[in-house]
Amino acid sequence: MTDEKTTGNPVFDYRASFRAKADRVQRVLILGGLALFFVCGMAFLCEWANEHWRLAAALGGLAGLCCCALGIAWGFYWRNRIRREFREHFGTANERR
Minimal CA–CA distance to 14: which of 26, 24, 6, 22? Predict the structure, then answer.
């Protein structure tokens, strides 16, 4: 399915549905990772937690940080990919002069 042009501006219309989906994935990874890190951090600091609970909370916090880092890396990747493909398709501003 091709992206429909809605604004007439090729910068905004180029692969708009992919941009929306990629942005949603990035947001879920970052916010989910931060939420997991926060919840596991609170569980780690609880006094009732024994050694096994603290280990599980520490590993969960590490997984949350990894999800957040993955979300940031995904953001750099998909934005650079879109930028590169757009320049290949439409050229750069210097080439059009």
Answer: 6
